[in-house]
UniProtKB/TrEMBL annotation, chain A:
Pfam families: Oxidored_q6. Belongs to the complex I 20 kDa subunit family. Its cofactor is [4Fe-4S] cluster. Keywords: 4Fe-4S, Iron, Iron-sulfur, Metal-binding. GO terms for molecular function: 4 iron, 4 sulfur cluster binding; metal ion binding. This is NADH:ubiquinone oxidoreductase-like 20kDa subunit domain-containing protein. Signal peptide: none annotated. The lineage of its organism: Bacteria, Candidatus Desantisiibacteriota. Residues 55-166 form the NADH:ubiquinone oxidoreductase-like 20kDa subunit domain. The keyword ATP-binding does not apply. PANTHER family: FORMATE HYDROGENLYASE SUBUNIT 7-RELATED, HYDROGENASE-4 COMPONENT I.
UniProtKB/TrEMBL annotation, chain B:
Coiled coil: none annotated. This is Uncharacterized protein. InterPro entries: ComplexI_49kDa-like, NADH_Q_OxRdtase_suD, NADH_quin_OxRdtase_su_C/D-like, NADH_UbQ_OxRdtase_30kDa_su, NiFe-Hase_large. Keywords: NAD, Oxidoreductase. It comes from Candidatus Desantisbacteria bacterium CG2_30_40_21. The keyword Oxidoreductase applies.
Amino acid sequence: MIKILHQVFRTGIVTEPLPPMVEAEMVEIGGELEEIIKKRFHRSLTIRAIDAGSCNGCELEIHALNNPIYNCERFGLHFTASPRFADMLLVTGPVSINMEIALRRTYEATPPPKLVVAIGDCGYNGGIFGESYASIGGIKSTIPVNAYIKGCPPTPTIILKGILELITLEKPYAAQSFHPR
Amino acid sequence: MRTLINNIIGIEANLDEKQYPSDIHAHLVDREAFRDVAKAMKANGARLVAQWATDETLFARGFGIYACYGKGREYLIIKAYMPIEDPTFPSLTKKFASAYRFERQINSLMGIVPVGHPDLRPWIKHEDWQENAYPLRKSFEPCEKITRVKGNYPWITVGGEGVYEIPVGPVHAGIIEPGHFRFSAVGEDIINLEARLGYTHKGIEKRFESLSWEEGAKLAGRVSGDTTVAHSLTYCRAVEAISGCHPPERALWLRALMLERERLTNHMGDIGAIANDAGFAFMLYQMSRLKEMLLRTNQQLFGHRFIMDRIIPGGVALDITQEGKNEIIAEMDWLSKEFERLVTIHDRNSSLNERLINAGILLPDTAKELGVVGVVARASGQGMDCRVTNPFSPYDQIIPKVTVFEEGDVYARVWVRIEEIRDSIRIIREILNNLPDSKIVSRFECPSPNKDGFAVVEGWRGEIVYWIQSGLSGEISRCMVRDPSSINWLALEQAIVGNIVPDFPLCNKSFNQSYSGCDL
């Protein structure tokens, strides 16, 4: 136990010693994000991640949002196990033929109002997998999408930034095919 | 093994000359002898590495069925042709358990029937696809649409008083890939687990056939996002084998450097995630911090956090500077110290280890029977590592240490990873201290028609196999991908029996199989 405590105190809060460039960006994004989440989502924006057939690359970066360095929970971003509790769906793709029905059902199980963000180049248009007998293509082929965060895979910072830009829009729920800068 | 095959088939004349590299022997046998060879291989203690089918109608050879056997450092490919009007072959499932799903997949996607197979339910293809959709056949257009039909997938059921089923997935609670698991349980004890995968099937093998050789390396890098380096490396080695391209020495060393960095990041993540599933979140956050630092260095030095698209046919896409080298060496010193502190904490935490020891045991005999590979195999007494048995430079000079445990439980799988991290750090240091000077890419010429290339590489999960055939005009005609998960998923179903349902996430995480790499 003493070793664990020692390691905890020795490590400190790792959010501090980030490279200055990223840190500046994170504080800026995070601060704004927190304000909006407080105002619009009563302190917590709950996200359900769905893999609709991706290669697992985007999942790794969504995972990284939860690591102590990005620590997305400090801004009120929280991942949930059930679509019933979700305000937002983060969907990675291409939509595979075998996930199409499950994706649609998960979307329907999410109570409105809901936001859908497609992650990655594949979520946008199928990426390198394109459209084929097995890959239906981008997420839009199956469910309505509010915003796209492109990249192969997009880095955690880009994902955070994209989420922020979407929810700071005047009418995020009305957004269609919004592309963050 | 070669003497053995000569005894069975009789003559060297059956040697297939179009198989590269030339030390991988391929033998053509009659369809009827396909199972006899398997029988002899089994008796000789070989394992079934992969089994796949080809549509070679454009070469006027009908369909081809291939089985690759491995023993020690030797790989042997046995193939047989089938006429178009009678696409059947004798099933190997009763000889080799790992053939079970390979053959179901061949049956589902190529429409070739393994005669004598005990269970021909569709695999990867789901029950709601139209019956006659065989996407891997040449007559099937890549963009042809599948019509959904009403289908039924008969699950394996367990009878008896108090037995109930728990269906899980395809959308899971965590941020993971989709798959369906069906548990039959009594109380909390698992009697049977049946996995049904295929949810991330996006037609990768078919997609290869419409890409150029260079684009193929990119697609291979996206077969499984966490194994991007190892997959694109295996693909490139198979392609280079056919085209006779020899990457410069420095490129080979840089490839090994990238491969070891991938092993480090994934093993770190796994150790943390396994501990987290046993309720020890501290380890997850500590390990994911180390992992994030490694990814950032990747971004800085290789321009991508997971080093995607940096391995290309003929070499690597970018070089490393002296400053970059120094940076990695300094990072390894820092990382090693941090890691060892965490290992001590992990080791001394008895409540954590109570959960890991004796959970999800895969006995060495079962592991051998199933022919499992990689971390899972080494934790169950199978001392195999392609970096040692089939090395490319620099692994012939910097020999990796193969850590083997006999216990086969979650704890053993954690410790294999711990030892491999330690060894990877050593390998990375040695690579950087002895990195040869040369170009980083050789001229790559596209392969000539009608040749087969084969390559194996030890990714962080285990042995990855690619087999590529060039077509009539020198294009990619068939690209077979075998991720370690294709075999190891079977082992998870065996290891979980007798455990309690709440321990499934823990056991599953200790295997950490790829869904995308298995579904393709």
